[in-house]
Amino acid sequence: MAPDRLAVDVAGAAELLGVSAGMVRKLTLEGSIPVARIGSRCVYPVDDLREWLRTRTQQPGAIADRVLGGAP
After folding, report:
1. Global pTM?
2. What is the DSSP letter of 58?
3. 7-66: which CATH topology?
4. Closest CA to 3 of 35, 33, 41, 47
5. Which of 13, 29, 34, 65 is spaced 20 to 30 A from 23 at the CA atom?
6. Closest to 35 (Cα-Cα) out of 52, 54, 56, 16
């Protein structure tokens, strides 16, 4: 992926986020990931994806606490 791209397709978004293309499609259908439509195509603005992920980053241990039944 070229570093100066403004937006990427499903495969590019999956690569950036470290998830499968299927997960990106699922998040798109749920309306929980930033996406823009250009004609019939979905494109994912790179800066918006980075911000979306940054805002979902939790403090170290928070996920482990939830999974392992620790503090809420």
Report:
1. 0.75
2. P
3. Arc Repressor Mutant, subunit A (1.10.10)
4. 47
5. 65
6. 52
